[in-house]
Amino acid sequence: MYTFANLTRTLNRSAIYLRGLQSRFELPECDGASYSDAYLDLLKKLLHLRTLFIPEETLRNLWQIEKKLLQLLHADSTGSITWFLDACGARTHPKQRLLLTNYNMGVEIPSKTLQLGLNFADRLPELFSGREMGEDALCLLNDYLKLYARIPSDIKAELPMVRAAARWGRQFLKEI
Predict the structure, then answer these.
(1) Which range of residues forms the domain containing residue 72?
(2) Measured between alpha carbons, how far is 58 from 153 in angstroms, rounded to an integer?
(3) Among 5, 17, 64, 175, fewest CB within 10 Å belongs to which?
(4) Handedness of CA 160, 163, 165, 167 (dihedral sign)
(5) 51 or 104: whose pLDDT is higher?
(6) Helix 137-175 vs helix 56-72: angle between axes, to the nearest 10 degrees?
């Protein structure tokens, strides 16, 4: 478990920057040493993707879609305030996981198939199903896949510049 100060040191980012990230991604602020490894993993992933020049707007849109998809699949039944990022530290079945929440969908992503109707919650069902209320997990998954599909090509395009910057940085440090 980490304090907020530990997060700032580990991520080499200012408190103002991390608070802004928490605010923009609607992440909970924890008291004391309450930040989990999964929380840190999510922040690292966001920073890595931003370093690779993935627009924050794209990441926020993905984040919102992933959270909504998980709600429709009733993955929010743990009672944890960080239920949407608790899987971020998981390492098994990486091809089956959503990009940001790292939630295991049970099928490879992209796949366009879901096992609908799973309800992990211990609560009474809603009066109307999500589909009757206009929410459709497959539509959300389709929106997610459209955003997700652009990220690998954007990363491939940016990697040469990031590698060149790292080489330049190493050379610069040798020279001073």
Answers:
(1) 4-175
(2) 14
(3) 175
(4) negative
(5) 51
(6) 140
Residue 36 · residue 69 · CB < 8 Å: no
Look at residue 137 in the predicted model and tell me its pLDDT.
79
Output the DSSP codes for 75-115: TTTT--TTTTTTTTT--S-GGGB-TTT--B-SSPSS-----
> How many whole angstroms separate alpha carbon 130 and alpha carbon 118?
13
Tens of pLDDT, residue by residue over 17-41, are: 999 999 999 999 988 888 999 999 9
CA distance linking residue 57 with residue 6, whole number of Å: 27
Q: What is the pTM of this model?
A: 0.81
Query: Residue 117 pLDDT > 60, yes or no?
Result: no
C-alpha 113/C-alpha 138 separation (Å) is 8
Domain count, the chain: 1
**Tokens 């610069």 label which residue?**
172
